[in-house]
Amino acid sequence: MSQLKDLQTRVLHTPSKWGEPLHAHTFPIFQTSTYLFDDTQMGADLFGGKREGHMYSRMGNPTVEYFEELVNSLEGGAGTAAFGSGMGAIHSATMGLLKAGDHLISGDTLYGCSVELFGNRFKDMGVDVSFVNTASDEAVVKAWKPNTKMVYLESPANPTCKISDIKGIAKICHEKGAILVVDCTFTTPVFLPALELGADVVLHSITKYINGHGDVVGGVVTTKCPELLQKIKAFRKDTGSLMSPMDAFLCIRGVKTLPMRMKVHMENGLKVAKFLEQHPKIKQVNHPGLESFPGHKIAMEQMKGFGSTFSFEMQSFEAAKKLMEHVKLCGLAVSLGTLDTLIEHPASMTHAAVPEHLLKQQGLTRELVRISVGLENPDDIIADLKQALEQC
Ligand SMILES: Cc1ncc(COP(=O)(O)O)c(C=O)c1O
């Protein structure tokens, strides 16, 4: 708890390297596409990297940089890069560090579009990809090839909350000369110190908890290695995926309450998970905070807390459908980590594009429902689920 309060103070008082323009209390939106040079030498120096400043907003923008500084202060990295979407962040953190002929070991349980990106686009570009059960360190070692350059995983993974041993896999990667990239969208830097555990690169869809207000699509990548950051930022420039200044302004507003929001998300999520766990119409609840969950032990060792997004299995697809159609407070929508509670059906929505064999490999069934518990009174969410379950 005291660590949470420290993070809350840190994120509220991290200064911008550009100071407080015009003494503004909140950092302004620099809504400009380009910047004026005093003379031609200034332009040449900026483009030549001899002077710090701004040239063009696809390359950098003060509002975006302040948001990056706030995320970096929570992660404890060497620097952060912000993107126009979580997928943009994933693209730059992977393709920006790989080339044709490299081998990528990817977790088999990932957000559906990440599976599509690696399984289709990367294969077309000549990157060899193996989808592996990263909950087993042995499976990662077994999948290793002479050209393996990166291991990529989500922990807890979307949507079954599969937990991977970040510390153990980081050790394997470093012994064998590869990079470990971890998507920590479900937990945020507040509860999962992935860089401290050994990951080289950590990323998030800030569309979720980090912005939290459900009004921005964006992503962030943080690394403890300046050379990796430079490569990722260069790839972002060339592929044009920088976050917009207006979105960065909203994200600055959002991230400033992240530690305190995560505390409530965690308490509410656990309370709802415990209610579902004892309900006779629920077959199984996948929440890393429950003792019955297979990844519980590693989660307790490596995480400082939990997000509020988890999944549960109903007796049948029909029952799952009825539940999602009878809830009144919970919104039937994809996305997660918003202020209010959202519920969705991974097999036909967020993970609809995942090939059948991978769905089977990761245990993602049609009976599975994903919920992201918001900041409401958790008793109201429980009452809503209870009345919906009575109709299943
Ligand atoms: C774990 C995870 N990573 C990445 C993404 C992609 O983020 P975005 O939708 O912001 O592009 C998502 C989206 O749901 C996600 O759940």
UniProtKB/TrEMBL annotation:
GO cellular component, one term: cytoplasm
Keywords in alphabetical order: Lyase, Pyridoxal phosphate
Gene Ontology molecular function terms on file: carbon-sulfur lyase activity; cystathionine gamma-synthase activity; pyridoxal phosphate binding
Annotated InterPro entries: Cys/Met-Metab_PyrdxlP-dep_enz (IPR000277), Cys_met_metab_PP (IPR054542), PyrdxlP-dep_Trfase (IPR015424), PyrdxlP-dep_Trfase_major (IPR015421), PyrdxlP-dep_Trfase_small (IPR015422)
Catalytically driven reaction(s): O-phospho-L-homoserine + L-cysteine = L,L-cystathionine + phosphate; O-succinyl-L-homoserine + L-cysteine = L,L-cystathionine + succinate + H(+)
Superkingdom of this protein's organism: Eukaryota
Transferase in keyword set: no
One Pfam family here: Cys_Met_Meta_PP
EC nos: 2.5.1.160
Broadest EC class assigned to this enzyme: transferase
CDD domains xref list: CGS_like
Gene3D superfamilies documented for this protein: Aspartate Aminotransferase, domain 1 (3.90.1150.10), Type I PLP-dependent aspartate aminotransferase-like (Major domain) (3.40.640.10)
Cofactor(s) the protein needs: pyridoxal 5'-phosphate
Modified residues (N6-(pyridoxal phosphate)lysine): K208
Keyword flag Disulfide bond: no
GO biological process, one term: transsulfuration
Pathway given in the UniProt record: Amino-acid biosynthesis; L-methionine biosynthesis via de novo pathway; L-cystathionine from O-succinyl-L-homoserine: step 1/1
Family, as annotated: Belongs to the trans-sulfuration enzymes family.
Protein name: plant cystathionine gamma-synthase
Organism, as annotated: Entamoeba dispar (strain ATCC PRA-260 / SAW760)
Lineage: Eukaryota, Amoebozoa, Evosea, Archamoebae, Mastigamoebida
